[in-house]
Prior knowledge:
With 263 residues, the protein is α+β, with helices and mostly antiparallel strands. It has 5 helices and 15 strands.
Amino acid sequence: xxxxxxxRSAREIALLRKAGLVVWEAHQLAASMVRPGVTTxxxxxxxxxxxxxxxxxxxxxxxxxxxxxxxxxxxxINEEVxxxxxxxxxxxEGDILSxxxxxxxxxxxxxxxxxxxxxxxxxxxxxLVDVTREVLDLAIEQMGCCRRWSEVAVQMEAYVxxxxxxxxxxxxxxxxxxxxxxxxxxxxxxxxxLRQSGDFELVPGxxxxxxxxxxxxxxxxxxxxxxxxxxxxxxxxxxxxxHTVALRESGPYVLTxxxxxxx
Length: 263
């Protein structure tokens, strides 16, 4: 079975929560800017300035790749699944925009993603966005009920397929703590590899980033010429939601959720 990074103490989870709350606040700022006529670069610049003001280190900018990632957010529009680069592209009525961002605060990380409608969107696209958000909610709920991650992943995959959509398999969630990407890998589907060697126990102290990516059509994606943006092969829409979640004795704790998570 998969090796875990060290489980986190209550003190460490409290520090992770501080980073997660900054990520939540960054997403509130970004959400307030999503409307027709705004560019993704404008939203990215506002989030970068917000992180600077909060003395938080952006996790995405400079990530190694064919070229270092040039922004503090991933901005993925319509058929773009993940890792879209902010640009002077103007948002239009009917688009959907997936915003993914994270930061490190005092040595601890938070990471979250949200897909936003831009104005009025088509009913099938609205259903895609809703189902992707719902499958993340399902995973968080079941994290507190199941013994192993595979039991959660099988429910996530079934939920998506029951609604006629497909689960992206090339990218999965991850452990998170002092680094953005730690063990274990956290898939949103069940594979032979997960059942044989990638499964892990759901025990108090576990902190993971759960991030379903769901496509309207085919599950298959390809890399765009910018070497970062991942898009569906059939050009149909994709949605992405993510939260950083800790498992405590009392149950799941959404570290990148709003203040209501602390009640």
